[in-house]
Amino acid sequence: MKLLILDAGHCLSLALAREASRRADTELVIEQGFGVGATELAAIDPDAVIVPPMTHPGRRPPAEVQAHADAVEACMEACKANGVALVWCVADELYEEGFEIPIDEHVVPAPRDESLRRLVTTGDRIRAEYHRHLIVRLGPLFALEGSHAWLSEIIDSLMLGQSVRAAEDVICCPTSVDAVAMALIGMLAQQGCGADAWGAYHLAGIEPVSAFTFSSVVRTQLATHLEGRGETVALGAVQALNHHHDAKLRRVLNCRRVLDVFGVHQKPWRLEVGRMLDAWCLTRDEARPPQGETA
């Protein structure tokens, strides 16, 4: 299976590269940019194109969101011309106002924000014009490297003694980028074997929490890891932000369909954070000079 990944520096692109390197059945071609034309796609001849999500689209300049939507639609046209499957990953933030219950796949986002509506229009067009697509809605991604990694940003700030400000009144499902990469490759492998299960899927971590609670758990686990290695670091504090004073906004994705169709189980984010912090500590140890030497 040959996959073309766009936006090489995105944390999801890096995770896909790591996952593909562990498999003998997957070949990746990674493009630095975000666009691909029909001629270029024909030359590469992949089985699928994967487009990583735009993180925090509601906070981006409208022109940037417009450019992203235009690029995705151009990519869809190129895929359609070449009969190549399209995987477009989308942030859960398109569900701008959330829902009291977990959000099913058939619920199409209906945001009030004009930039978010532009992305919904792109999704509508993909669904209407090209059958061989997967629109994968994701919870907030976390990773140790790459753009939009979140976890690495929290760790860096805490290690510098800086405060981490995070919303306490928005409930979401933090999602391991490694788990998403594994799931996407598995889903496409099944599609290549004749699953023919195209459409929209939700893919997020389990145990809904606020960004404040997530950041606080990261701080606690980081302190535990450091103390266990005999290090004393004055970590920064985690400060709660409140944007919705009347009631908490719940943005929780129901991921039952991806389990029923592809057998993909969601990974607990607490375990994934612990695993990533183990890896972070090992990388930090390797970067240190041996005892008795100076850097």
UniProtKB/TrEMBL annotation:
Protein's organism: Vreelandella malpeensis
Q: What parts of the sequence cross the membrane? A: none
Domain of life per record: Bacteria
Which SUPFAM superfamilies does this entry report, sorted A to Z? Answer: NAD(P)-binding Rossmann-fold domains
Q: Under what name is this protein listed?
A: Sugar nucleotide-binding protein
In this protein, which residues make up the domain named RmlD-like substrate binding?
A: 64-279
